[in-house]
Amino acid sequence: MRININKELLLKAIGIADSVISSKNINTVLSNCLFNISKDQAEIISTDNEIAIKTKIEAVADGSYSFTANGKKFSSIVKELPDDDIVINVDDSHVIDIKSANIKGHYTLYGTASDEYPELPVISMENSVEIEQAVLKEMIKKVIYAAANDTIKPVFNSIYLVSENPGTITAIATDSRRLSMITRSIVSEIIVGEGIIIPLKTINEVYRLLNNSGVCRISFDSNQCYFKIDDTEIYSRIVDGQFPNYKQIIPKEYSLKAVVETSKILDSVKRAMIFTREPAYKIVMTFNKEILRIEANTPELGKAEEEISYESDSKDKVILGINALFLLDTLKQVNSYSFICGITGQMSPVTIIPEDDKNYISVIMPIQIKTASE
To answer: Which pTM was predicted?
Structure first.
């Protein structure tokens, strides 16, 4: 069988599919991508049995054929060929001959039969939701930093999507020490009351594919979720477990509400963090009569002290310790000029809400302190 295909389209498609394949995979079949060729398109599929990706590109072929091949080797060969259409010939033994019209030579890659390649799951579109790609991309970006990367509890190594009210969708991530939650409007009226817990690996693949235009279709059933982004589809298992009750974590009332200029505290925390040690990165924040003092003190390194002003109706003095890295991660996602910092006590969750986006809430658990200089 002979296939004519654009070099750049082929490279992009293999790159999309091959991204989920682990280099540590000892299963030969799962180390390869599946190529389903028809007369006018090439369909490239990969899976690690937890997540699967299928993407389509235009191609011209003299028949239909399926085979598997190592995606990394395939793309490495194609990448080094001149920028032109690629001619691929595949025989009945799955030997793949790759040529370019601009050079005298050919390259041979050994493929395998497609018979043993796992089939993609079948998922119902009954629970289907459409969301603008730009909106979903923003939502993921603003919460993903709060998810854990190295935990034995999969619910912390994930993002929770839920739609409790028609026309809205909410994304939440937490590693048990911090939490981030964002709600956005969508056209779909469907309610996802129980929510779905999506693994970070899947979320990272989705984020990588999202653009600033177009829509993404999301669907799910009891143990699978599905994303369709342009010509690419992602199938993934969802995490089996109970997501933490995020509503109980977010304080309802505050003893102190401070309105702080975002850029000022961001720069101040960056400077103070120089005088902290990982993993705690502890700084001490003292809110007192509209003056916020930020301190860090590590005997072997030195100390930092800086004051910035804030607005508040409360004159209460509050002293708390906080992880500077967690605070920076949160503040970097605040796009408004100022934010509301809600505090209920020295060991109660600290809430950060951008002034111009009340549907984006972040929570950080404080660090216990005894004295300001500790």
So the answer is: 0.91
